[in-house]
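Exercise 7.
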Amino acid sequence: MNKRKIFISYRQSDTQSEASRLKENLEEVFGAENVFFDIETLEPGLNFAKAIEKTILQSAVVLVLIGETWTEVKDESGNLRLFRDDDWVRREVAMALSMEGTRVIPVLVKDAKKLTADQLPDNIKTLADFQWAELTIPRWRSDVEKLVSSLEKIIPPLKKEPEKRKFNPPPKPTNWFAKNYLWILGVFVVIIIIASLPNESEIENIDPNPIGLDLDQKNITPEEAEKLREENPEGNEIYNSLQLKDDTSGNIIQVAGNWILYLEGEPGTTLILTQSGENVEFQEYNVFNVKIGNGSGYLENNQLLFDYYNSVVDMNAKIVFSTQNNGKSWEGRITFPLNGASNNVALQRD
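Solution. The predicted structure, written as tokens, is:
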């Protein structure tokens, strides 16, 4: 079997946002048909277990995304989900480890630590022995590039044909002026230069010593030298006074802080945004100050794009905001891929 697929295994409450963003990055290189992401890739009406097993069987690589809480998530009874036989993340990893010709790569996301065998159930303990990759928010692009470089050794990337650009030759001049305007311009410039030259009487009246130096004096006292320095700053002082300020830091819209999320015009939850350059994360709290969701994304021009998870309804969503006032307020839509629901949303500073 010719295996070409990449299977992304993740725990929704742990790394759903990062998994969604990684999927988009990998699709650009390997094609959407070769990257499996259960929420969006699984067709309606299919048996989940059989579909997952079939896809892993066709996958050359299984990426196991491990966040800070991957081993710590508990069920309703307070038991670790990873140690339950029906935990889908555990079943995916176990299937991948048992498949011949499938490369399993654990990927540590954000500040996750390397796993040890005693943290894992018996049937996936060997996962702790595999060489891992890393995905961090501040170094997301470079980390993804390193991961893609490793994957390209296993799965050939899509061949992209270079874009062919058409260059139209400039139109040929049709009249005498169009053909000779450069000569006319040159003559005009010469006339201006000659007219601006000083005549002999003006040259005679030029002060050869405009700053009042005693040209016959060979020795200058320290006091006179100090006075000259005060009246005539050195070239480097003038140069420093003309330096342009670097204003590149102001190019990125600053969104860190507390925001009120409006749903269909009605105020709802509070989002606390943190920012590192163009990368943005948020935690969501209800009116009782209880955390009910989180998300991560990035700024792109005047748009703010998030992958979002809500723990109350246990669903994932995508949020796309745009601003018309340099980040003072944001408007957009939230979409839930699982059921197709979509609503208008907005952000206002708290």
